[in-house]
Amino acid sequence: MKRPQRQSDGHLISDQDRYARFRLIGWWDQEKLGSASVLVAGCGALGNEVTKNLVLLGVGEVVVVDNDIVENANLAKSVLFRPGDTGRSKVEVAAERLAELNPDVRIRPLHGDVLLDLGLGLFRDVDLAIGCLDNREARLFVNQACWRMGTPWIDGAIQEISGVAKVFVPPDGSCYECTFTDLDYRYLNLRYSCPGLKSEDIAQGKVPTTPTISSIIAGIQAQEAVKMIHGLETLASHALVFNGVTNFFYVTEIPRREDCLSHETYPPAEETGLEAHAATARELMQAAFGTDEGACVELDRDFVTEISCPPCSETRTLNLPRDRIAAGRGLCPSCGADMSPEFLQSIPASSSLADRPLADLGIPQHDVVRVRRETAVRYLLLA
Ligand SMILES: [Zn+2]
Ligand SMILES: [Zn+2]
User: Rounded to the nearest 5°, which phi and psi values hold at 65?
Assistant: First the structure.
């Protein structure tokens, strides 16, 4: 007969406790994990591995966001997907499989676009976020959202059989944008000149990866999350780089760039109960200041009022968030060139757009919206 083992606190291990072996680790606190909430942005190869790990570890709540469906090409890299799942929402399938792995964990699948559908309130509600993304733009969005809400995040990136994990802790550490070079900015700016060119068309270059590198980097991400939840020292403001060809592993510091544009942190937001689909910008102004006079609602997502081709005298009114513009709509009907967009950064009370529901202006549900009047700014949380 096997001798019963003892936990670090001297208690006998119970066979009924699925986490009993974790509790043998001296500093482990299963209750801390069980009360933690983690947002996982992306449910591809990395997201499958990260959510699998979080669920096995008994993290209390896992919110997973992706707007893709399962395709045949995903099956070779995704532990949660099966051949019969093709055509279904990635997050819905993942949630079913994760619930089988560990019914203790609350899994919240959100079928939506990271850039368009994630309100800041979601970043506020979780203890940390994990980026399992494949493009700069989505990472930059997650980074800004985390900084605004004061939420740490762990980024992962993979290519072929190599990868990197980075940990960012606001407000004092370095952030994802601090790593940007001129080339990164040029790449991002390309998007501004081409409305109707959706991010996936240029950013998701179908980078080749393997299930082995996704499990290595996702393993590091999930393990850093465990350490962070325990208050242990993490890779904060550092990158762990792994070259799988040479087996070279190293950690490098990410210096904080004082001119970085992502270091804004919001004060605590005021809850409003207003719904993005029902409330208008004007109602939000009135909720903030008791009047809409002289007020405006700030927009975080690029909003295109119109596009034009001056040489052809072509103008088209759009009034749409940039990422909702269908591919091809940004082309001039006369000459076929990219039409130049007119962006709006804020909606003033004088605009007819102030009477549109916030969702029409590209503001997602549970977002934190800045409302300004003269020098006063209020931060309002939507339902
Ligand atoms: Zn920065
Ligand atoms: Zn033209």
Answer: -120, 130
User: How much distance in Å is there from the Cα of 312 to the middle of ligand 2?
Assistant: 4
CA of 304 to the centre of ligand 2 (A): 18
**Rounded Cα distance, 287 and 4, in Å:** 61
Q: Distances in Å between the alpha carbon of 132 and those of 124, 179, 218?
A: 19, 18, 8
pLDDT tens figures, 111-135 = 999 999 999 999 999 999 999 999 9
Residue of 255, 234, 261, 275 lying closest to 141 (CA atoms): 261
pLDDT in tens, 269-302: 999 999 999 999 999 999 999 999 999 999 999 8
Judged on CB neighbours under 10 Å (0-12, 13-18, 19+), 227 is middle
Which ligand is closest to the CA of 173, given by its number? 1
What does the pLDDT look like over 357-382, one tens digit per residue? 999 999 999 999 999 999 999 999 99
Q: In degrees to the nearest 10, what's the CA dihedral of 350, 355, 356, 362?
A: 40
Instruction: State the alpha helices, DSSP H only, in the chain.
Output: 30-34, 45-56, 90-101, 114-117, 120-125, 136-149, 182-193, 199-202, 211-229, 281-289
Element (DSSP H or E) covering residue 158:
strand 153-159
CA of residue 291 to ligand 1 center, whole Å: 36
Q: What is the DSSP letter of 119?
A: -
Would the pTM count as exceeding 0.70? yes
Q: Which ligand is nearest to the CA of 331?
A: 2
Bridge partner residues of 373 (DSSP): 295, 376
User: Which ligand has the minimum distance to the alpha carbon of residue 309?
Assistant: 2
Note the pLDDT of residue 247. 97
Go through 10-37 and write b for each residue having 16 or more CB atoms within 10 A of its CB, e for each that does not.
eeeeeeeeebbebbeeeebebeebbebb
Cβ distance 339 to 307 under 8 Å?
A: yes
Q: Which tens digit of pLDDT belongs to each residue from 1-12?
A: 455 566 655 556
